[in-house]
Amino acid sequence: MTGGPVAKITKRSEDYSQWYIDIVTRAEMADYAPVKGCMVIRPWGYAIWERMQRALDDMFKDTGHSNCYFPLMIPQSFLAKEAEHVEGFAPECAVITHGGGKLLDEPLVIRPTSETIIWAMYKKWIQSWRDLPLLYNQWANVVRWEMRTRLFLRTSEFLWQEGHTAHATSKEAMEEAERILGIYRTFSEQWMAMPVLSGRKSEGQKFPGADTTFTIEALMQDGKVLQAGTSHYLGQNFAKAFDVQFQNRDGQLEYVYATSWGVSTRLVGALVMTHSDDAGLVLPPKLAPVEVVVIPILKADADNAGILAAAYRVAEPFGDDVRVRVDDRDNVSPGWKFNEWELKGVPIRIEIGPKDLEKQQVVLVRRDTGKKTPTPMDAISFQVPGVLEEIQDGLMKKAKERLEAGCRAADTYESFQKAMDEVGGFIYAPWCGSRECEDRVSEETKATIRLVPDTAEDCGVCMVCGKGPAKRVPFGRAY
RNA sequence: CGGGGCGUAGCUCAGCUUGGCUAGAGCGCUUGGUUCGGGACCAAGAGGUCGGUGGUUCAAAUCCACUCGCCCCGACCA
After folding, report:
1. Residue A334 contacts strand B, CB under 7 A
2. Which of A131, A194, A209, A364 has the most CB atoms in a 10 Å sphere around its CB?
3. How confident is the model at residue A6 (pLDDT cuts 50, 70, 90)?
4. Higher pLDDT pick, A274 / A1
5. Same domain, A299 and A266
6. How far apart are CA A135 and CA A477, in angstroms?
7. How far is the CA of A20 from the C1' of B13 (A)?
8. Does at least one atom of strand B sit less than 7 Å from the CB of A397?
9. One domain, residues A228 and A258
10. Rounded to whole angstroms, how far apart are CA atoms A51 and A319?
11. CATH number, position A333
């Protein structure tokens, strides 16, 4: 393929939403599928997801989790066993009524999440305290019949991982839920270079079937916020619904304590919205499918064979440490390649032309700053790892500054609404803790309580009802 | 489900108001040649049941009816 996008992408200042769509489609991360609300994840987008998977999977394994796989189809009755769960998910389930040309005795739902089928199995596998904890994870696809979809951020079918653990004590399960939240936070910050706020969800925002939901929340460039990952302490809700009991050390029967947690391909969308600019995608090196692209610049009157050889020689010493690609296509011009790789977000470009060959140097260009640095050819392989680190850190620093600038405080409902309309972001405002006040804010301003920080300070009276005591919690308009 | 938009070449679209000759452009694609340090150029080509069905008419991409689909904005949500 020498073709591809020629048109410029929409500027963020003109139409943020269109800018996002342009980047995702023109960087060939994803395309609309023939099925409404569904997308095809193309190789460039999938490679980013694979990088994410690998990093997360390593962290899950390092904390004692094992991967497994449960079926896509769940008997409809399973979903109904947990009251809040069915209420939350039934409306958005795809249901299979026929198979093999016959009406099924019982319809099957395509999993919107797998708690129910997993707990049906856990009932078989758990009898004793010695069987616990069960620390399982699966990488899977799920389907939720969403009304309004958006590439990567919300599609009818999406890819994710879902962890499902079973524990002998409440304390242990709660620790697990918090441990995973920590993993999500670490991954987000260290791999995605995406700073987040973390904490508990309010009653109104928690997962259907959970006692406590922990969340990480990120700030996008347009001032909207995004839930990037959740970890749930499920208490004994699913154990009771599926009658999963174990005998404890004292010989007593007890219901198992549970957690579930997940992150999805939404993270790819979050990545786009966190770092990218009007020239296209900007990838943090750790998640970039290609970290360095080497572009030989060939000319009619130059030593093209020498330039090509030099390009390969420059790429060679990186070995497995750095993901390098030499773009030796001869059917597109260097300028075309520059634009294409910028659009695709590759962190470092190395140019080698006749002038460079003469001076035994290359030109190193950073995607994040656009800065061009002539570098001696024999020094490049030593310098690149450091520059990649600088880019990774620089992206984090910039994103962190934006997050900090995006966190503001408001004391009155009026100033809160004003701040929400003018700048968005996370507005910290006093809230009494009641569902009524939370719902009223949500209805009137479309902003929701993103989380309740563990360290939330007491701060006088609620901005809505005027009653105290109130805690300061961040509100935001979410994707 | 409400509001808006769009279905004509792989992509972006023009043509439709006021029906008419062989349905067009740019980009992309193929072949050959010259190029190549920020989206190169020349030449020759390939590529279309104008979303679908029905109707009006001598004649429909164009007018009428019905219908299908997708995208964007909003309500719901990872």
Report:
1. yes
2. A194
3. very low
4. A274
5. no
6. 34
7. 22
8. no
9. yes
10. 18
11. 3.40.50.800
Tell me: pLDDT of A239 over 80: yes
Taking the C1' atom of every nucleotide in all shown strands and the CA of A201, the nearest one is B78
Residues A106 and A64 in one domain: yes
Q: Is strand B in 7 Å reach of the CB of A371? A: no
Q: How far apart are CA A337 and CA A357, in angstroms?
A: 19
Strand B contact with A148 (CB < 7 A): yes
Task: Report the complex ipTM.
Answer: 0.90
Q: In this structure, is the CB of residue A150 within 7 Å of any atom belonging to strand B?
A: yes
Query: What whole-number percentage of chain A has pLDDT above 70?
Result: 99
Distances (CA, A) of A180 to A131, A173, A174: 21, 11, 10
The dihedral through the CA atoms of A172, A176, A181, A182 has a sign that is positive
CB A391 within 8 A of CB A348: yes
User: In this predicted structure, what is the pLDDT of residue A7?
Assistant: 56
* One domain for residues A244 and A327: no
| Total structural domains within chain A | 3
Q: Is A365 within 7 A of strand B by CB distance?
A: yes
A4 domain residue, yes or no = no
Non-local CB neighbours of A195 within 8 Å, separated by 6+ positions: A188, A189, A218, A396, A399, A400, A403
Residue A21 shares a structural domain with residue A147? yes
pLDDT digits over A427-479, tens only?
A: 999 999 999 999 899 888 889 999 999 887 788 899 999 998 999 999 999 98
Q: Which nucleotide is nearest to A443 (CA to C1')?
A: B75
Sign of CA dihedral A417, A420, A423, A429: positive
Q: Is the C-beta atom of A305 closer than 7 angstroms to strand B?
A: no
Strand B contacts (CB < 7 A) among A residues 399-438? Answer: none
A151 touches strand B (CB under 7 A): yes
Strand B nucleotides, any atom under 7 Å from protein beta carbons: they are 1, 10, 27-30, 34-40, 69-78
